Amino acid sequence: MDNNISWKHVSRSLDENGYALLKGVLNESTCKEFIAMYNNDTLYRSVIKMERYRFGKGEYKYFNYPLPDALSTMREKFYHQLAPIANGWMKMLSIDTEFPTKHHMLIDLCKTNQQMRPTPLILRYEAGGYNTLHQDLYGEVYFPFQVVFALTQAGKDYTGGEFVLTEQVPRAQSKARVISLDQGDALIFTTNFRPAKSTRGYYRATMKHGISEVTGGVRYALGLIFHDAT
Ligand SMILES: O=C(O)CCC(=O)C(=O)O
Ligand SMILES: [Fe+2]
Predict the structure, then answer these.
(1) Nearest protein Cα to ligand 1, atom 7
(2) Ligand 1, residues 75, 137, 147, 163: which to mutate, most atoms within 8 A of Cβ?
(3) Do residues 161 and 214 make contact, with C-beta atoms less than 8 angstroms apart?
(4) What confidence tens digit (pLDDT) does each residue in 94-140 have?
């Protein structure tokens, strides 16, 4: 993983937009290693066919514990940098939550709420696949940011399949953003809301994410969610 991430840029972009795009975080061989893991079923605790739950069309697999080392390490590193930003948001919104500095301490908090199952996942979509707008909340304990890594290359491995982020403020319809990811890029984004500024201070702008329809080829992505699930 590229360690030259500018966390100042990340913090500013999250504050302004609710997401931050990091170019070229994973190299091509690391992306291929994750894709190769997809068919190793010993690595996963469950396989979800998205149609069955009307989540969209495609398939994803939740990793089991112990996570592959590379994934555990990335989760700890990202968490450590994102926790202070999350705490800043909680303050802005007057929410009485303070996230611990280390990821294993968040996992301990999850355990106290019976959230014990890992949530990192790999997703796979073929032509016609898509992911409906949603939020990845799996219990009362949740970390407000998550990360998605593009494992395949748009325009080469697949077409369509763009990341969509919507933002909804009170008494208005949703605004959508489409974010183009290249293979190896990481997108950090808010799981359920961002602080938006008004004349009376900050309020919560609800955000959801999804994937537009894949029109050809096969698209893979790796999702890194920090809290465990019930
Ligand atoms: O890029 C993808 O397919 C995953 C999008 C998503 O829902 C996530 O990362 O949580
Ligand atoms: Fe998601």
Answers:
(1) 210
(2) 163
(3) yes
(4) 999 999 999 999 999 999 999 999 999 999 999 999 999 999 999 99
147 Cβ inside 6 Å of ligand 1: no
The residue count of the chain comes to 230
Burial class (CB in 10 A: 0-12, 13-18, 19+), 159: middle
Determine the CATH number of domain 7-225.
2.60.120.620
Helix pair 103-112, 69-92: axis angle to 10 deg: 80
pTM given for the model: 0.97
Helix then strand then coil, % of the chain, to nearest 5:
25, 35, 35
Structure-token match 């061989």, residue found: 29
Residue located nearest, by CA, to atom 5 of ligand 1: 210
Compute, in angstroms, the gap from residue 9 CA to the centroid of ligand 2.
23
**Domain ranges, ordered by start, for the chain:** 7-225
pLDDT of 29-68, one tens digit each?
A: 999 999 999 999 999 999 999 999 899 999 999 999 999 9
* Ligand 1 pocket residue status of 148, Cβ below 6 Å: yes
ipTM over 0.95: yes
Closest CA to 149 of 191, 187, 121: 187
